[in-house]
Amino acid sequence: MNSKKKNVDVSAEAFVSMAIHAGQNPTNEVHGLLLGSSNKDMILVTKAVPVCHEIPTKPLLETALSLASSSEEDLVIIGWYTAPKRLDDKHPGPVPLRIAANLPTSDVEPVLLMIDNDALALCLTDENPKDDVVKGFGKDFGQQWLEPLSLSVTNEKKAFEAATSAFSNGIPVVDLVDHFEDTKRDWIGNNLLATHVAKIVN
Amino acid sequence: MQGPDEDLPTLLKRNDHLNILRYLRAQKIRDPDTTIHHGKALLGPNLSNSVKGGESARLACLEQVCLAALDVQDHRLSEKCLSQLRLVTGKEAIRFRMLLARCLEAAGEGDEALAIYDNILTTHPANVLALKRKYCLAEEAPERMELLNQYLEQNSSDAAGWYEMAQLRKELGDFTGAAYAMEEVVLASPMDAPAHVELAECLASAGDYRLARKHMTQALELSPKNTRAMFGLIMVSNGYLESVSQLGKKHVVDEHDVEVAKALIQYGADKVLKTYKGTTMYSMVQKALQTYTDNLSK
User: Fold this and answer.
1) What does the pLDDT read at residue A2?
2) Residue in chain A nearest B171 by alpha carbon
């Protein structure tokens, strides 16, 4: 069995979406789905779909999976992202670990991305973070998603710039829980943010 | 605590400093800027002015302004408030020591604050505030669990405490424990639809789909337009059907119950489609729900 871990590449749009989702919920943990694709060597995270700013439960997760799988996107579920509640939490909690282990990804081992809140705070305030803002984890020998993966953000400088700009301009990210409170709010597309990112990155 | 009869805009218009502070206290409004502004105007630059309502009213305002000062990290102001309070109550008074501990917490001196709370609890083990502050200072989950359990043993009717326990249990992935705590919350607020939804979701996460279904249905009865409950009803009813289908041949399946679950899935799906009709998400939602409604005929 080939146990070589794949590298992870996160698109600028996915990075900004995760960053703003975490940044606009500073006192809660946030969670979301990762959509993308994979090839022999890489897992490509194309889109981050925000799910909640609370601890996810099974019905909420199943609803998110069902809706995301049925979206028009030509992408598949490839992982889960989380940002811990506390500033100094550097490891994913038991719930995102369990989710990552049970995600119904078709033929790729799911990836778990975790946001480093300290580094994110520096990124969103236009300072240079010393550590990586996003860290990737794969399955380890103990069947836990704690094996660090090599991760890069496409066009990282522009992605950081887009995140800082979106945060300071108050461009919101709507997660599924927000959408349930007001179904008029655009959830899966988050078009306002997508347009803003495209303007800066392209 | 009963506040003044008038509303806040009226009091603000009249610049009625004392009653503004009373209003904020009674309504538990956390607005440090307004509190400090009107507190300083009422108590004077040295915070030593007397107040209509007597010394007890003045002390209440001093405490309120002190806590507001901590919120905005104005430690000089909070120290002034503490000094004024100490002049009246003395340094051994619990009232003064509790406020001192809060100031120590804000200054990052958690250990010193904890020592004060522990000391207070030795002589006053039912001091609810000290117990709560100890819980807030705790960092590791096992310690937080123990302190919250201690608090709830003495205050078993505190629904907010049970809700906090539910969140703590969920953080640890213990959905069975979270459901137990949420049941207390629902007992205290049986007409609260979001509480029923949260309980249902915890129950489903713990594997009890049958009871989850009941609470999700109850949530929809209380709040017919609750979209989260609509989807939740589909998911928990489907979860029930899946769990029943995995039972061995020795288990007797309640066929009526199965039919009810199927009917609830259809009911939930109809409500969801009605909600999303005419929106950009309609086709996506319709496609997602087909998986659940197609299975009903099997």
Assistant:
1) 45
2) A55
Under 8 Å between Cβ of B264 and B256: no
Q: How many CB atoms lie within 10 A of CB B186?
A: 21
pLDDT in tens, B93-149: 999 999 999 999 999 999 999 999 999 999 998 899 999 999 999 988 889 999 999
How far out from the chain centre does Cα A157 lie?
18
Instruction: Please report, in angstroms and rounded to a whole number, the separation of the first and last CA atoms in chain A.
Output: 40
Residue A58, min C-alpha distance to chain B (Å)? 5
Q: What is the mean pLDDT of residues B50-60?
A: 91
DSSP A3-39: -PPPEEEE-HHHHHHHHHHHHT-TTS-EEEEEEEEE-
Element (H, E) at B58: helix B54-71
Rounded distance, CA B34 to CA B36, Å? Answer: 6
- Cβ of residue B243 closer than 8 Å to a chain A Cβ: no
For B:262-281, CB contacts with A below 8 A are 275-276, 279-281
Give A85's contacts in chain B (Cβ within 8 Å): 171
Residue among B173, B212, B275 minimizing CB distance to A94: B173
Q: At A148, which helix (H) or strand (E)?
A: strand A147-149
Give the range among A161-165, A184-188, B183-187, B205-209 with minimum mean pLDDT.
A184-188
Q: What is the phi/psi pair of residue A43, to 5°?
A: -110, 125
* B223 neighbors B189 (Cβ within 8 angstroms): no
Contact: B204, A58; criterion CB under 8 Å: yes
Q: Using the beta-carbon criterion (under 8 Å), do A180 and B227 form an inter-chain contact? A: yes
- pLDDT at position A51: 97
Chain A residues whose beta carbon lies within 8 Å of the beta carbon of residue B275:
183
A16 Cα to chain B: minimum distance (Å): 23
Q: Is the pTM above the cut of 0.95?
A: no
Q: What is the interface size between A and B, counted as CB pairs within 8 Å? A: 73
A78 in Cβ contact with A110 (< 8 Å):
yes
Helices (H), chain A: 12-23, 58-69, 94-102, 117-124, 156-168, 176-181, 191-201
Q: How far is CA A27 from CA A85, A124, B32, B35, in A?
A: 6, 16, 19, 24
From A178, which residue of chain B is nearest by alpha-carbon distance? B228
- B233-288 residue pLDDT tens: 999 999 999 999 888 777 788 889 999 999 999 999 999 999 999 998 999 999 99
